[in-house]
UniProtKB/TrEMBL annotation:
The keyword Transmembrane applies. This is MFS family permease. It comes from Leifsonia shinshuensis. The chain crosses the membrane at residues 45-70, 82-105, 176-198, 204-224, 264-282, 294-314, 326-344, 350-368, 389-415, 421-440. InterPro entries: MFS (IPR011701), MFS_dom (IPR020846), MFS_trans_sf (IPR036259). PROSITE patterns: MFS. One of its GO terms (cellular component) is plasma membrane. GO terms for molecular function: transmembrane transporter activity. Gene3D superfamilies: MFS general substrate transporter like domains.
């Protein structure tokens, strides 16, 4: 072999080309559309969120559980159906105003953030409403007070829930949903326990549970940080654009739509079941409605264990197993079984057994459904408040329509002043069961 001379060019061997990476455009598109995982929130946020939602439910669900029934009986004896008209009117107002409040919250620019101003304002309106209901001299004015209560405390609650959409990563949604679901289910129980000591004093009947709500919401507002929102992009709405925010294309977000329908059916059945609970127990026990507060309170206290098992067990397991749908189907089925038992009960032991099963189902469904909602909520970064407001239709429409429907169902097949509570509870059972089954149509979440 001859050596190259200085006049011959030196040719270096070229390295073999690297293999071209395999590109899957669908994977790239999917990754581009998937938002980054939010950082985990700390214990301070979680526990003050749980306490705040407990306080809200103590303040404005206690009236549904017992206080409004007592006031209706005092102002219009023998007209239990008026309770349905009052609660329906309040829910109808919230149904119409909730998306607007959510859009307004999304676009609020203040030093203390987007959500906290609405929590503060809603709490003020809520306290005024409680005083109003306590001193209302007529059923009509009592209804006006309930509309204010639904608007005020509902605004606080919706912004607390929007905050979870802003802050919670997927890995914590079931856990927080379980804790808040547990808190919101036991809050009315504590409210009824407190209320039974003030049945003779209308002002304290409403204000003592309300004071708990004020304290706990204030703790969240003052101790949980929310970023300054003044630097966020501004979006000025016209009336036309605002009205269009009330609707969306279900085909564009099918999983959100199925979740909405399942929630609607479940809460329609739940509202049928709970609106006339005090009157139902009074009828089955053969006593007047003001005598059942202690019984409902004791029953609710026992039900705390069932609600805890459903909410915490379902919430934590759904995070760990990364499955939501099976727990919602199970929650609807369990609650339907409990409602059926109550409907067919003629004695206190069976009423208690049915109520405990209902508590288990409510805790399970409510906790996991809240986590599922956050999983499928569209446009979290820009329009979380809007879609949470639209989600609110799934509960506010039942709250508006179900009491009216219940008043009609109670009159079917009976006469002489009797009420058909058996049929009412069976219809409620069918609806909550169907609400759980609808969730199976969701595809993006297991």
């Amino acid at each position: 072999m001859s050596n190259p001379t200085s006049d011959e060019p030196v040719v270096a061997a070229m390295p073999a080309p690297l293999p071209a990476p395999t590109v899957n455009p669908e994977v790239i598109a999917e990754e581009a559309q998937t938002p980054p995982e939010l950082p985990k929130v700390g214990a301070t946020y979680i526990w003050f969120m749980v306490l705040a939602q407990f306080g809200v439910f103590m303040a404005f669900i206690t009236p549904i559980a017992i206080s409004l029934a007592i006031r209706v009986q005092a102002l219009a004896p023998g007209h239990a159906e008026y309770l349905g008209y009052i609660t329906g009117a309040g829910a109808l107002f919230v149904m119409l105003s909730a998306p607007f409040m959510g859009v307004w919250s999304d676009r609020t620019r203040t030093r203390i953030g987007r959500r906290r101003p609405f929590m503060i304002g809603g709490m003020v309106v809520g306290v005024i409403s409680l005083v109003w209901m306590a001193v209302a001299p007529s059923v009509v004015l009592l209804g006006v007070g309930w509309v204010l209560a639904q608007w005020g405390w509902g605004t606080v609650l919706s912004n607390l829930q929007i905050s979870t959409a802003d802050r919670l990563p997927e890995s914590q949604r079931g856990k927080v949903g379980g804790l808040t679901g547990f808190a919101t289910q036991i809050a009315p129980v504590f409210g009824v326990v407190i209320a039974q000591f003030f049945t003779a004093n209308a002002l304290l009947l409403f204000l003592v549970p309300g004071a708990v709500g004020v304290v706990l919401v204030t703790l969240f507002v003052t101790l949980v940080h929310e970023d300054d929102s003044r630097g966020l992009p501004k979006d000025h709405l016209t009336v036309g654009r605002l009205l269009r925010k009330y609707v969306y294309n279900p085909a564009q977000f099918p999983d959100f739509s199925w979740n909405w329908l399942g929630r609607f059916l479940f809460y329609f059945g739940l509202t049928l079941n709970t609106t006339f609970t005090a009157f139902f127990f009074a009828e089955r026990m053969g006593v007047t409605v003001d005598k059942v507060a202690g019984v409902i309170a004791a029953l609710g206290g026992i039900g705390v264990l069932a609600t805890t098992a459903g909410a915490l067990g379902g919430g934590f397991l759904s995070d760990r197993l990364r499955r939501r749908r099976v727990f919602l189907v199970l929650g609807g089925a369990v609650m339907a079984a409990g409602m059926t038992t109550m409907a067919l009960s003629a004695s206190l032991p069976f009423l208690i057994a049915g109520s405990l099963v209902v508590s288990l189902g409510i805790g399970l469904f409510a906790a996991v459904d809240q986590a599922l909602l956050l999983d499928v909520l569209p446009e979290k970064d820009t329009d979380a408040g809007r879609f949470m407001g639209i989600t609110g239709f799934a509960t506010s429409i039942p709250q508006a329509v179900a009491p009216l429907a219940a008043s009609a169902i109670l009159l079917i097949g009976v006469g002489g002043g009797q009420k058909n509570y058996t049929l009412l509870f069976l219809v409620a059972a069918a609806l909550v069961l169907l609400g759980g089954l609808v969730i199976l149509r969701i595809r993006s979440v297991r």
